[in-house]
Design goal:
MDM2; 4 strands; alpha+beta; 12% strand; two-stranded antiparallel sheet; 5 helices; single chain; two-stranded antiparallel ribbon
């Protein structure tokens, strides 16, 4: 039996001004938000070299992370979700 994609994940979410700096201001599904955040992290080399699970924030990411200079991947997801309506 084929699984239906979870509608909650596909529902476009509106990023706030802080997150829009990274993912743009259009409402997009959570899955796209995650892809764009990771693209930003890779492009700017923000993944910790020694501990790949840690993300080191630049100024834009620090705003998303509530002022923290580094968070782990799981915490990052929670913090990013706070910026979506």
């Amino acid at each position: 039996m084929a699984r239906k994609p979870n509608a909650a994940f596909m529902k476009p979410m509106q990023p706030d001004a802080v997150l829009a700096e990274i993912v743009g201001e259009k409402a997009i599904p959570r899955t796209e938000v995650t892809k764009k955040v990771w693209a930003y992290i890779k492009k700017n080399g923000l993944q910790d070299k020694k501990n790949k699970r840690m993300i080191n924030a630049d100024d834009k990411m620090k705003a998303v992370f509530g002022g923290k200079s580094s968070v782990n991947m799981f915490e990052m997801t929670k913090l990013v979700n706070k910026h979506l309506k």
